[in-house]
Structures are given as C-alpha cells and as structure tokens.
Amino acid sequence: MNKSLLGASLVTLALAAPLAQAHEAGDIILRAGAITTNPTADSSSVKVDQGPLSGADLGGKATMSSDTQLGLNFAYMLTSNWGIELLAATPFEHDVKLKNTALSAANGKLGTLKHLPPTLSVVYYPLDAKSDFQPYVGAGINYTWIYDEHVGSDASAAGFSNFKAKNSWGMAWQVGADYMLTDRVMINAQVRYIDIDTRATVENNAVAPGTRARVNVDVDPFIYMVGLGYKF
Ligand code: NI
C-alpha cells in the first residue's frame, strides 16, 4: 500500500468510526486496573501503654511500604454529570517498620498487615456529555478493614507478639479521567487521597512481662490507578 492510499484509508477509518458517546444517566461503568497504595505514614512516637514500663516514650516512628493490586471501580451515573462510585481491590499487604526508637531491638521490620479499603464516592464530571475526554472529581467515605497482622521473624525473635491495628473510617478525595476509545470502552487514570488513621499495638513479654507498646499512624495514602473501563 502506498502512502497516499494509506492516508486515504486512515481518513475513511476516522470518518467511519462510531461517534463515541460519553456518560449519561443510567450508565453502569466497570473499571479494572493496577492500583497502588502509597502510604504517607506519619506517626506518633512509640509509647509503652501497658506493663511495668507503662508511660515510657520510646520515641521513633512507624513507616509502611507501598503495594500494588488489582483495583475495581463500579460506577452508576445518576445524570450525565453526577455519579456514585464504589472502589474495591484485591487485598493490599504492607510491611510495617519502626525506626529510631530507644529500644534498638524494636527498630526494623515489625511485621505485615493486610487491608481492604472499600470507598463509596460521589463523582462529578464537569464536561459536556458529548466529550470523549471526561475528567472528574469525587469525594466520599472510606472504611479500611485491617486484618491478618503478623509479627515478622526478626521481631518475633526479639520477643514481639500479638501485633494488632485498628480499622478506620475516613474521608476520601479523588481526581480522575476517562477517555472514550469507543462508545463503550475507555481508558482511565485516577489519583485518590484517603484519610486512614489507625492505632497499632504490639506486645513484648521479653522486655518485661505484660509490656505492650502502641503507635498512632496516619496512614493517609495516595492511591493511583490506571486501567480500562467498560460502559454497560
Ligand atoms: Ni489522617
């Protein structure tokens, strides 16, 4: 095929492509993609709150690693501009580390935890429904269910046990965009900030029987997702 024929074919293809229709009332949108949770993880110092050393401030702070999983969005359009959306994902797993505490055996990896952060949001698409490019903003409520907390092997050898972290309710904000490839298929990118605050506790009977330490962690992650969507 020579160049002018190829050019003519592309023009014909472009003219023949169905007019992409963006979102309208009653649409159900399913998106799937790679989702990364990157905790900002600011924390209080580590304090002993039970046992003979109760009240001791060990200083330091807790940090958390990031993790990538399969993210899912289920959205329902109430009008061509307003929708509701549920975020779901396969379980995230994070390493929890303590650093710079006065108890050198406590510094390093304390353990791991898993969590699921279902989030229900109201989303607003400001552009005209005919636009193929559909940026949006959203705000909603998050429930983070933390489970399967485990003390790591080094921390376990140092006497740590019974690591626990509390579940969290908080606000969630997001910006994102859909770009319609056809009248049903879209590519999507989104960023969220979720207020997740937890209190973690861990026991250590080797330091002194009945000793428990706690740390308040503002997990407050940025969450990034890129993927494909399909409109039903
Ligand atoms: Ni927070």
What key attributes describe this structure?
232 residues, mainly beta, 8-stranded antiparallel barrel, 2 helices, 17 strands, 8% helix, elongated
Could you give the topology of this structure?
Elements: H1 3-16, E1 28-39, E2 42-43, E3 46-50, E4 57-59, E5 61-64, E6 67-77, E7 82-89, E8 92-99, E9 108-116, E10 119-124, E11 133-151, H2 153-157, E12 160-165, E13 168-180, E14 185-194, E15 197-204, E16 211-218, E17 221-231
Antiparallel strand pairs: 1-6, 1-17, 2-16, 3-4, 3-16, 5-8, 6-7, 7-10, 8-9, 9-11, 10-11, 11-13, 12-15, 13-14, 14-17, 15-16
The protein binds nickel (II) ion.
Description:
With 232 residues, the protein is mainly beta. The chain has a single domain, classed as Porin, CATH 2.40.160.20. The protein has helices at 3-16, 153-157; strands spanning 28-39, 42-43, 46-50, 57-59, 61-64, 67-77, 82-89, 92-99, 108-116, 119-124, 133-151, 160-165, 168-180, 185-194, 197-204, 211-218, 221-231. The chain has an eight-stranded antiparallel beta barrel. A hairpin with a 4-residue loop joins strand 13 and strand 14 (185-194). The longest helix has 14 residues, at 3-16. It starts with a helix and ends with a strand. The structure holds nickel (II) ion. The site of nickel (II) ion has 4 residues, from loops.
Tell me the count of domains: 1
Query: Order of strands in the sheet with the most strands?
Result: 1-6-7-10-11-13-14-17
Taken from the alpha-carbon principal axes, the silhouette is: elongated
The distinct ligands, each listed once, are: nickel (II) ion
The CATH topology corresponds to Porin
Structural class: mainly beta
**What is the number of helices?**
2
- What is the level 1 CATH name? Mainly Beta
- Mind describing the biggest β-sheet? 8 strands, antiparallel, barrel
Portion of residues within helices: under 10%
Rg of Cα set = 24 Å
Order of helices and strands: HEEEEEEEEEEEHEEEEEE
Task: Give the rounded overall mean pLDDT.
Answer: 93
Query: What is the CA-CA span between the terminal residues?
Result: 38 Å
Q: Based on DSSP secondary structure assignment, what is the total number of beta strands?
A: 17
**Strand composition percent:** over 45%
Low-confidence stretches: none
